[in-house]
């Protein structure tokens, strides 16, 4: 049975966390097909550390793509290499991440192969008639199941949907010379400079503090930054599309249908009304806390905890309370762990009193 190709995103010799999800999704599909998973690592030869990480997620073989470029290859070169590899080895499917780089790369590969591309996939399996993928439509209001009966089918999986599960293999490593004619697309990549500096990426944070148009002015963002700092190093700032479109915050922080999908343990929606496009990117968060002056705001429909009030009064008080709680909290090892939500229930009772 034809195998499944997973395309790993790498940067500076490291595998991005989303690549673990891509390999896990490919592993599940390959198991239903009774085939193996090959992972294409575009970092080039000498990326042995990548092989260990990828094999732990279910890779049977790691293909280090040698494009022959002196530095990072352009997306045109990578697309030509992946298309040639998919064609030559007859993969049943190729799996990408539905991230910025993945959205740039996958359509190019699909065009070169004249193959179907299913984007933002949230579930995938194989049946006797082909590969069946589930993807959201109408801004997440419905889910469509699409069956493709011809190979290869290209899939881009939505980040933070597929769990990066452990499925250890003793993966072989193979260096593959890039095919496709070496078309550079007319430009050469000299390097990468992260737009967010050392800031934690919003899609990888355990806690996200997002702000909306109700923050009124970009100068007020320090209020949310202070709340984020109070929550610790695992917190990151997010923003709604309206805020990003207005130029208040960088696109890297945008949460929503046209931004990033996040599934943090804790999500703060501060002065965000809750348009369906925003909900599509954060509604699967573990616990959602919403603060808005409008009691009828749609965000309260998905929130676990809601505060109807002025964000400029509520956010500083939250930050102060969190700092006091963190400074006084001492971990104990001689007591049985509490059930999830116990602390929140006590906090709620104290607030009511």
What global shape is seen? elongated
Say how many strands there are: 17
CATH fold annotation of the largest domain:
Rossmann fold
Determine the mean pLDDT: 84
Topology pattern, helix = H, strand = E: EEEHEHEHEHEEEEEEEHEHEHEEHH
Helical coverage, percent range? 25-40%
CATH superfamily of the largest domain: HUPs
* Tally of structural domains: 2
Provide the structure class.
alpha/beta
Q: What is the number of helical segments per DSSP (H or I, 4+ residues)?
A: 9
Task: Fill in the keyword field for this structure.
single chain; 353 residues; alpha/beta; Rossmann fold; 2 domains; 7-stranded parallel β-sheet; 5-stranded parallel β-sheet; 9 helices; 17 strands; 30% helix
Structural features, described:
- 30% of the residues lie in helices and 24% in strands.
- The chain is of the alpha/beta class.
- It folds into two domains: 4-177, 3-Layer(aba) Sandwich (Rossmann fold); 207-331, 3-Layer(aba) Sandwich (Rossmann fold).
- Strand 15, helix 7 and strand 16 form a beta-alpha-beta unit.
- The N and C termini lie far apart (64 Å).
- Residues 333-353 have low confidence and may be disordered.
Fold blueprint:
Layout: E1 4-8, E2 10-11, E3 14-15, H1 17-33, E4 37-41, H2 48-56, E5 61-66, H3 75-89, E6 93-97, H4 100-113, E7 117-121, E8 123-127, E9 130-137, E10 142-148, E11 153-157, E12 172-177, E13 207-211, H5 221-231, E14 235-239, H6 241-245, E15 266-270, H7 276-282, E16 287-292, E17 305-308, H8 311-328, H9 342-352
Parallel strand pairs: 1-4, 1-6, 4-5, 5-12, 6-11, 7-11, 13-14, 13-15, 15-16, 16-17
Antiparallel strand pairs: 2-3, 8-9, 9-10
């Amino acid at each position: 049975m034809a195998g499944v190709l997973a395309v790993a995103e790498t940067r500076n010799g490291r595998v991005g966390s989303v690549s673990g999800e891509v390999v896990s999704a490919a592993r599940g599909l390959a198991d239903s097909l009774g085939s193996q998973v090959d992972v294409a690592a575009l970092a080039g030869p000498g990326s042995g550390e990548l092989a260990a990480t990828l094999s732990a997620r279910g890779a049977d073989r790691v293909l280090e793509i040698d494009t022959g470029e002196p530095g990072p290859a352009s997306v045109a070169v990578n697309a030509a290499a992946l298309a040639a590899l998919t064609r030559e080895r007859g993969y049943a499917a190729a799996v990408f991440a539905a991230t910025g780089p993945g959205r740039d790369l996958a359509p190019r590969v699909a065009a070169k192969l004249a193959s179907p591309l299913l984007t933002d996939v949230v579930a995938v399996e194989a049946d006797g008639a082909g590969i069946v993928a589930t993807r959201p439509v109408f801004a997440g209001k419905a889910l469509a199941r699409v069956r493709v009966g011809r190979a290869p089918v290209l899939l881009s999986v939505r980040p933070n949907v597929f769990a990066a599960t452990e499925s250890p293999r003793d993966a072989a490593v193979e260096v593959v010379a890039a095919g496709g004619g070496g078309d550079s697309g007319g430009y050469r990549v000299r390097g990468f400079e992260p737009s967010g500096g050392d800031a934690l990426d919003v899609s990888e944070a355990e806690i996200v503090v997002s702000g909306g148009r109700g923050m009124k002015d970009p100068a007020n963002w320090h209020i949310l930054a202070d709340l984020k700092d109070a929550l610790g190093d695992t917190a990151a700032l997010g923003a709604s599309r309206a805020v990003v479109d207005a130029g208040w915050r960088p696109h890297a922080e945008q949460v929503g249908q046209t931004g990033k999908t996040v599934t943090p343990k804790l999500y703060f929606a501060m002065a965000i009304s809750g348009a369906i496009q925003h909900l599509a990117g954060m509604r699967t968060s573990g616990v959602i806390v919403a603060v808005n002056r409008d009691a009828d705001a749609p965000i309260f429909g998905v929130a676990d905890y809601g505060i109807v009030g002025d964000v400029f009064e509520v956010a500083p008080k939250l930050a102060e309370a969190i700092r006091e709680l963190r400074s006084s909290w001492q971990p104990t090892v001689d007591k049985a762990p509490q059930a999830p939500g116990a602390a929140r229930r006590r906090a709620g009772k104290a607030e009511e009193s």
